[in-house]
Specification:
Number of strands: 6
CATH topology of the largest domain: Aminopeptidase
Strand order of the largest sheet: 2-1-3-6-4-5
Oligomer: single chain
Order of helices and strands: HEHEHEEHEHEHH
Structural class: alpha/beta
Strand content: 5-15%
CATH class of the largest domain: Alpha Beta
Largest sheet: 6 strands, mixed
CATH architecture of the largest domain: 3-Layer(aba) Sandwich
Helix content: 40-55%
Length: 232
């Protein structure tokens, strides 16, 4: 026969349950607040495009995209880490990520980048690049996102707005969707590609080679990323 539970026992059990529920809710709230303040480390991957035998775009001033990408990526790393974000880099030197004996070094390089990104399981990946166009008058940063990623689109918007504003772009460009770029298609987590400027534009090419402007670009990207992470 089951024993009859006393009223005071029931009251005690209910009290304990209530305390536990309040405590759990408090923990969730605390975690959320910590996440917003940056106390809980979120992982972001920074991908400096090209490298090694692949120079990327060559500027009208002779600058190499691979060098500019890395310079900005390292400054972005410093900015994000100063805000409590854990950063994983796909490369931190001039070396490419391809296997030396690979018959198709570009494909080998891209596969390795995807492996690093997926292994890190990041909240976001930022791939740094420089743009180019047949007309030298075209200028301004532009952020790409995967067509089928609403989260990527939202992050791209934050970063694009920050760059347009902080880099004082006279006619700011809009974010652009893409479903053909290798990294956008092949990575499992949210990713954006940031084209920092046009190396085919003399004014922009001359600015992007300076450390001062590189830092300004990195700070703008960092600002947009932090806003996006806090909102999520």
């Amino acid at each position: 026969m089951l024993k009859k539970i006393r009223p005071e026992t029931c009251l005690g059990i209910l009290t304990i349950i209530g305390v536990l529920l309040l405590a759990t809710g408090g923990v969730r709230k605390a975690v959320k607040m910590q996440a917003v303040s940056g106390q809980i480390q979120t992982t972001v991957v920074i991908d400096a495009g090209h490298g090694g035998v692949d120079p990327g775009k060559v500027g009208v001033n002779g600058s190499l995209e691979k060098d500019l990408n890395l310079a900005i990526a390292l400054k972005l790393k410093e900015c994000l880490e100063s805000n409590g974000i854990n950063v994983v880099m796909t490369r931190e030197t001039d070396a490419g990520l391809y296997e030396e004996g690979a018959s198709n070094k570009k494909q080998s390089d891209m596969r390795k980048r995807c492996e690093i990104i997926d292994a890190a399981e990041p909240a976001l990946t930022i791939s740094i690049h420089q743009n180019s166009y047949s007309s030298g008058s075209v200028c301004g940063p532009q952020v790409f996102y995967y067509t089928h990623s609403e989260e990527g689109k939202e992050v791209a918007g934050f970063v694009q707005d920050a760059m347009n504003e902080q880099l004082e772009i006279e006619r700011g460009r809009d974010i652009k969707s893409n479903d053909s770029y290798y990294l956008l298609k092949r990575t499992k987590s949210s990713i954006i590609i940031v084209e920092c400027g046009f190396l085919s534009n003399q004014t922009e090419a001359d600015k992007i080679v300076t450390e001062e402007y590189q830092k300004k670009v990195a700070m703008a990207i960092c600002s947009g990323v932090i806003k996006a992470l806090k909102k999520s």
